[in-house]
Design brief:
It contains 6 helices and 3 strands. The chain is mainly α. This is 8-amino-7-oxononanoate synthase family protein.
Length: about 140
């Protein structure tokens, strides 16, 4: 464990120091990690195009999944839920994905009210992978 960095208010800082002193002094990050943080923040700030591209890819996937009559969701992020009527259906769909080389997580009650596949689209997720996923998912 390399520890962590917390950005907080002065009151939050005082609270943490008073309540977590032994934890604070036992998990300090390595100096190299502490020095890498400003560079990491700078890189993340400069990646607006990548963020836009990722959200557009997720939006296209949401539109495509509608061709199979899956219920619409309010998701606007790169994590696209595909809703199912039963736990058996979502588990079968996840297994079908796995057999076709795609790791897609089935999320079931009580974690969520409605069973779903959680499709996590990444910047390196290709259109062909998304097309493959759409083609193997059963009609709803």
């Amino acid at each position: 464990m390399e520890g962590a960095w917390i950005g907080t208010s002065k009151i939050g800082k005082e609270f943490l120091i008073n309540k977590m002193r032994t934890f604070i002094y036992s998990t300090a990050p390595m100096p190299a990690i502490a020095h890498a943080v400003p560079t990491s923040i700078s890189i993340v700030k400069s990646m607006e195009k990548e963020r836009v591209d990722l959200l557009q890819k997720a939006s296209r996937f949401r539109v495509s999944i509608q061709t199979k009559n899956y219920p619409k969701t309010t998701s606007e992020s790169q994590i696209v839920p595909v809703l199912f009527s039963s736990e058996k259906e979502v588990l079968d769909a996840a297994e079908l994905c796995r057999k076709n080389g795609l790791y897609v997580k089935a999320i079931r009650p009580p974690t969520v009210n409605v069973p779903r596949l959680r499709i996590s689209i990444h910047s390196d997720t290709t259109e062909s992978i998304l097309e493959k996923l759409i083609s193997i998912l059963p009609e709803f």
